[in-house]
Design a protein that fits this description.
- The chain contains 5 helices and 6 strands, in the order E-H-E-E-H-E-E-H-E-H-H.
- The N and C termini lie far apart (48 Å).
- With 228 residues, the protein is α+β, with helices and mostly antiparallel strands.
- It has a single domain, classed as 2-Layer Sandwich (Cell Cycle, Spindle Assembly Checkpoint Protein, Chain A).
- The chain is globular.
- The model is unreliable at 200-219 (pLDDT under 50).
- Strand 4 (74-90) and strand 5 form a beta hairpin.
- Helix 1 (16-31) packs across helix 2 and helix 1 (16-31) packs parallel to helix 3 (121-148).
- The chain has a 4-stranded mixed β-sheet with strand order 1-5-4-6, sandwiched between helices. Strands 2-3 form a two-stranded antiparallel sheet.
- One of its GO terms (biological process) is autophagosome assembly.
Length: 228
């Protein structure tokens, strides 16, 4: 059974790309599990851990840009970590054996983004503050989950930067999985399975609430704080 962690962040569209990159960097920092040099990023003045790697940095930026470009009022970012397993099967007609490999997911991270557009400078500042708070909460959840949930991690058999293959999925298309059988298509199917389960388990969750009600809640909360 794949272990799953879900995060939810409400964000101003103007900061979506930066916030997405920061969250993805933090998840990879905790679960890459190879030998790497750490570094620190500042996202909306929130310090976040990252990996000192040009290839990882380019990958994160590409998917953060994709999320920003393809999301309107909602967005989904997922990170699927897998283990490569091999097995030997008898070859056709009984001539020897052949080895096949497959990737089996062992952990899936889902980040649900509620995306709002600021209507004024005051509204923009409110969204900035709330996004900061959500970002800090998400970072603490990532750290706590990574520290508490370790028993399911497969044995690490290499000293590479990324001992386990991982797949990043942005706004996965709904519907049945493709028949290609590629590792990425299997990762997309895994993400859709998790998302489908979330919809059935919590139809009235914060993420499924109408965005206008979310915006109203945020504004009301901040107005209440200002009055006090």
């Amino acid at each position: 059974m794949t272990v799953t962690k879900t995060l939810t962040i409400t964000v101003d569209k103007a900061y979506l790309e930066d916030v997405c990159a920061g969250i993805l960097h933090s998840m990879l920092f905790q679960r890459t599990l190879g030998n790497f040099k750490p570094k620190e990023l500042a996202v909306l003045d929130v310090p976040m851990p990252a990996i000192e790697s040009a290839s990882i940095g380019q990958l994160v930026q590409r998917y953060a840009q994709e999320l920003s470009a393809t999301s309107t009022d909602r967005g989904v970012l997922a990170l699927v970590l897998a283990e490569t397993q091999s097995r030997r099967t008898n070859h056709w007609f009984g001539f020897g054996e052949q080895e096949t490999t497959t990737q089996v997911p062992w952990e899936t991270w889902i980040v649900n983004f509620n995306i709002l557009i600021s209507k004024s400078e005051n509204h923009k500042q409110i969204l900035y503050t709330n996004t900061q708070n959500d970002l800090q909460k998400a970072l603490l959840q990532i750290l706590a989950f990574a520290d508490e949930r370790k028993d399911h991690i497969p044995p690490i058999m290499t000293a590479d930067l990324t001992p386990f293959p991982f797949h990043i999925v942005v706004n996965p298309p709904e519907g049945p999985p493709t028949r290609s059988g590629s590792p990425h298509s299997l990762a997309v199917a895994e993400v859709n399975r998790v998302l489908s389960g979330e919809k059935h388990q919590s139809p009235n969750s914060y993420f499924s609430a109408p965005l206008h009600s979310i915006a109203k809640r945020i504004t009301s909360s901040n107005n209440s704080e200002e009055n006090h």
